[in-house]
Amino acid sequence: MADIEKNIIIKADAERVYKTLLDVTNYPKIAPGVQTVMPMGENLTRWKVGGPLGSTLEFSVEMTRIEPNQRIGWSTKDLPGDITTSGQIVIAPLPDNQTQVSLSMNYDSGGLQSLLGGGIEDAVESTLRNFKSYLEGMPRRFEL
Q1: 101-134: buried (b, 16+ CB within 10 Å) or exposed (e) per residue?
Q2: Long-range contacts (CB closer than 8 Å, 24 or more residues apart) made by 59-62
Q3: pTM score of the predicted model
Q4: What's the pLDDT band for 59 if we cut at 50, 70, 90?
Q5: pLDDT tens profile 2-43
Q6: How far apart are CA 24 and CA 121, in angstroms?
Q7: 2-135 in CATH: which number?
Q8: CA 141/CA 79 separation, integer angstroms
Q9: Which of 47, 48, 49, 130 has its CA 20 to 30 A from that of 39?
Q10: pLDDT reported for residue 30
Q11: Alpha-carbon torsion 20, 68, 37, 7, what sign?
C-alpha cells in the first residue's frame, strides 16, 4: 500500500467546500480522467475513469464517514483483483473566509498505477488545484 497526503487552501467557506465535495456530479469537472460519477443509492456511487490507451475502468465508491462541513471518508469497491483505495478529506475553516482541504489516500501502489497508467500523486494534486479553481470561480482546468 502507498499513501498520499496533500493540502490546499481555498478562498471559500467550509460549508461551500463541503457541499461541493459531497456533490459527486462535480468530479468529472475537476478530476483528470474521471468521465462520469453516478449516484447509486445512499452513500454509494459508480465511477467511470479513463485509463491508458483509451481504456476505461469502472468501480463503486462508498462514503464511509460523513461529518457535515468537516470530513468525508471513502473506500472503493469492486476494483479488479485485490486493488483497493480508501481515504478521507478533512475540511478546516480558516480566517478570512478560507478553508484548508487536507486529502489523505491509501492505495495499492502497483495495481492502481498499472490500471490508470501511473501518476496517481500528480492526478490527486491536479484534482485539488482544479477544485480550488472551480470554487474560486476561475474556469481553468489543470491537466496532467
Answers
A1: bebbbebbeebbeebbeeebeebbbbbbbbbbbb
A2: none
A3: 0.84
A4: confident
A5: 889 999 999 999 999 999 999 999 999 999 889 999 999 889
A6: 21
A7: 3.30.530.20
A8: 27
A9: 130
A10: 93
A11: positive
